[in-house]
Specification:
Length: 291
């Protein structure tokens, strides 16, 4: 390399070796996997992308939680009011398959809260109807809180015990059922008894018998149809034997509902006023005879 200085200016002469490689420029804008390296010229912030899970603790995947974590059960309450209303409608008016809708997004919300609402509705309406009957008979109004505990025990024992029985029986016969879907069938089947509890406040015995019969047919048909769909996954025929047992258990539940919560009579009121004591009937006195 040589330097010269004519006319007070610098002249630089660069000798380039022909054996050296030439420089090449690469268009990074079109290179693969370089989208994130481009400058943002739109003026808006790019969307946030959460970091990928390392797979060490399994906290990013909710399915990796055990049954002792709240996150495991939270997925069964991931429903909105529209989903619950649709499933309640299919349980009360079983024109379409309930399990097809339920298995798309299983939930425990209706399985828990619908029996709880039935317990509350039966206790309130039974206490109200008995209070009305005592007031009309001139008696003192009282509340029997033992009906609340009895309703809780009856409803939850039926849902959990019979639902678990269906699960174990159908699993034994090779139907491969799900415990949640068996419990949900009996949980949602209780929905029809909420309006029936309200209607049975009316002091008409024949009307109460009629609405209880409607509830028995509606909920019974829903249970039998859903259970038959579950046990139909098996190729055996012995699973058909559990259908009559379930029908008998359902009939016993309805009989308990009718005579414990939906049955009361209004006693006839005495014609005398409550503040006036009743006058005893005069007893005839014998007349002396003269001799």
């Amino acid at each position: 390399m040589s330097y010269g200085r004519p006319n007070n200016d610098y002249n630089i002469v660069v000798d380039v070796d022909e054996d050296e490689p030439t420089l090449e420029f690469q268009d990074f804008a079109t290179a693969p996997n370089m989208q994130q390296g481009r400058m943002n010229t739109s003026g808006s912030a790019p969307p946030y992308q959460p970091p990928a899970s390392t797979g060490g603790g399994g906290e990013a995947d909710t399915g990796s939680y055990s049954v002792w974590h709240v996150e495991y059960w939270a997925r069964y309450f991931n429903v909105d009011s529209r989903d619950v209303v649709q499933r309640v409608f299919l349980a009360v008016v079983p024109k379409d398959s309930f399990l097809d809708v339920y298995n798309a997004n299983p939930d425990l919300w209706g399985t828990f809260w619908i029996p709880t609402s039935v317990v509350f509705a039966m206790f309130v309406t039974a206490s109200l109807s008995q209070s009305i009957a005592k007031i009309l008979a001139g008696g003192k109004r009282e509340y029997d809180f033992t009906m609340l505990s009895f309703a809780t025990f009856t409803v939850y024992s039926y849902v959990l015990t019979v639902g678990a029985f269906v699960y174990l029986a159908t699993k034994y016969f090779g139907s491969q059922p799900g415990l949640m879907e068996c419990l949900s069938v009996y949980g949602y089947a209780m929905a029809v008894w909420i309006p029936i509890s309200i209607l049975c406040v009316l002091p008409l015995d024949w009307f109460r018998w009629a609405v209880v019969a409607v509830g028995f047919v509606s909920s019974g048909f829903f249970i039998m149809r859903s259970v038959n769909q579950i046990v139909g996954r098996s190729n055996g025929k012995l699973h058909k034997a559990i259908i009559p047992l379930l029908l008998v258990a359902h009939a016993l539940l309805v009989i308990v509902f009718k005579f414990k919560f939906f049955s009361y009579t209004v006693a006839s009121v005495s014609p005398t006023s409550p503040g006036q004591p009743s006058t005893p009937a005069a007893t005839p006195t014998p007349t002396p005879t003269s001799h």
